[in-house]
């Protein structure tokens, strides 16, 4: 860890407080922050309804999926690591499910009427 050490309080003869350097914080932010140096990508043609996908980017990603409702009604679900984190019941022909996926996690979206569009920020 890229830290500077300063002496703070002494307890039992040992003392130190580590502070992250500016360069370490800047590096961390540019490496792990959602949205920083990321762009929206249209994944509609390569994603399928109710199919698990891995987030292998090493960074969090944002998923936004518009589902088709059937006859003006639909249910949508978002899952991360097979845990349902989003449920949407809507009386419209289309609605959006959005969520963040941590690095290394799997994710999927299931819409009762199928997928209209699928975008990912990575």
What does this molecule look like?
By secondary structure, the protein is mainly β. It has 2 domains: 1-32, no CATH class; 34-121, Jelly Rolls (Sandwich), CATH 2.60.120.260. It has 1 helix and 10 strands. It has one helix at residues 22-32; strands spanning 3-6, 17-20, 40-42, 53-54, 61-68, 74-80, 83-90, 94-101, 106-111, 115-121. The radius of gyration is 21 Å and the shape is elongated. 15% of the residues are buried.
Count of DSSP strands: 10
Structural class: mainly beta
Instruction: Give the CATH level 1 class of the largest domain.
Output: Mainly Beta
Instruction: Tell me the CATH topology of the largest domain.
Output: Jelly Rolls
Q: How much β-strand is present in the residues?
A: over 45%
CATH architecture of the largest domain: Sandwich
Features:
single chain, 122 residues, mainly beta, 2 domains, four-stranded antiparallel β-sheet, 10 strands
Describe the protein's topology.
Elements: E1 3-6, E2 17-20, H1 22-32, E3 40-42, E4 53-54, E5 61-68, E6 74-80, E7 83-90, E8 94-101, E9 106-111, E10 115-121
Antiparallel strand pairs: 1-2, 3-10, 4-9, 5-8, 5-10, 6-7, 6-9
Quick overview:
The chain is mainly beta and 122 residues long. The chain is built from 1 helix and 10 strands.
């Amino acid at each position: 860890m890229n830290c500077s050490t300063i002496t703070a309080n002494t307890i039992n003869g040992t003392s130190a407080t580590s502070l992250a350097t500016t360069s370490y914080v800047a590096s961390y932010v540019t490496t792990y922050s959602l949205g920083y140096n990321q762009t929206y990508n249209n994944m509609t043609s390569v994603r399928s309804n109710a199919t698990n996908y891995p987030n292998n980017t090493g960074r969090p990603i944002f998923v936004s999926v518009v589902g088709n409702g059937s006859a003006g009604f639909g249910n949508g679900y978002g899952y991360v690591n097979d845990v349902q984190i989003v449920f949407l019941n809507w009386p419209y022909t289309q609605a959006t499910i959005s969520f963040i996926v941590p690095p290394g996690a799997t994710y999927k979206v299931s819409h009762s009427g199928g997928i209209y569009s699928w975008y990912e920020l990575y």
